[in-house]
């Protein structure tokens, strides 16, 4: 919050303000410049999206699909760590509001990889990927105020079930 106030109240030019906003207290852990962080974020996000797109090409082979989709998924979600720092990313992921969504998402990521690599069951892999997608959607909704409540209300209204 302090950084946001400094960013808004600062009288410097736009570039200096943008760089000061992206600066992180964890300089010892991540000593990338703000520009490098943005490039790393974009590269990681783009790599994740490319892997998820490539997974659709091999959809007929569920094990390859699961590997590409899951690693693409993890890259895309983890890309924001370059913007805010890994410590802040983990703090936000395990915040009391989204700790269950994060745990379920990570659990289904691990389950999908176990089903694809160890068990090598196509049916279990597809089921695990479907659950992973649902968990990712629920996790992403936790960042939007009242979004999970709205989706829950819609599910109750349309399906007579509650999440």
Provide structural commentary.
By secondary structure, the chain is an all-alpha fold. The protein contains 9 helices and no strands. The protein has helices at residues 2-9, 14-22, 34-57, 62-78, 81-84, 86-93, 99-119, 122-141, 147-159. Helix 4 (62-78) runs antiparallel to helix 7 and helix 7 (99-119) runs antiparallel to helix 8 (122-141). The longest helix has 24 residues, at 34-57. The radius of gyration is 19 Å and the shape is globular.
Q: How much strand content do the residues show?
A: under 5%
The arrangement of helices and strands along the chain is HHHHHHHHH
Distance between the termini: 33 Å
Major sheet size, sense and barrel closure: none
Number of DSSP strands?
0
pLDDT < 50 stretches: none
Helicity range of the residues? over 70%
- Globally, the shape reads globular
User: Structural class from helices and strands?
Assistant: mainly alpha
Task: Tell me the number of helical segments per DSSP (H or I, 4 or more residues long).
Answer: 9
- The overall pLDDT, averaged over residues, is 84
Radius of gyration: 19 Å
């Amino acid at each position: 919050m302090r950084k946001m106030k400094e960013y808004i109240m600062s009288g410097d030019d736009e570039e200096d303000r943008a760089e000061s906003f992206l600066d992180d207290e964890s300089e010892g852990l991540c000593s990338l410049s703000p520009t490098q962080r943005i490039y790393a974020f974009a590269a990681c996000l783009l790599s994740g999206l490319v892997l998820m797109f490539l997974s659709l090409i091999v959809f007929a082979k569920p094990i390859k699909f699961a590997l590409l989709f899951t690693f693409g998924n993890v890259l895309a979600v983890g890309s924001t760590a370059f913007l805010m720092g890994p410590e802040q990313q983990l703090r936000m992921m395990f915040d009391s509001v989204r700790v269950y969504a994060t745990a379920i998402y990570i659990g289904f990521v691990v389950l999908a990889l176990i089903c694809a690599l160890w068990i090598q069951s196509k049916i279990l892999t597809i089921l695990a990927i479907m659950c992973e997608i649902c968990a990712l959607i629920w996790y992403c909704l936790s960042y939007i105020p009242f979004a999970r409540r709205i989706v829950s209300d819609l599910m109750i209204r349309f399906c007579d079930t509650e999440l």
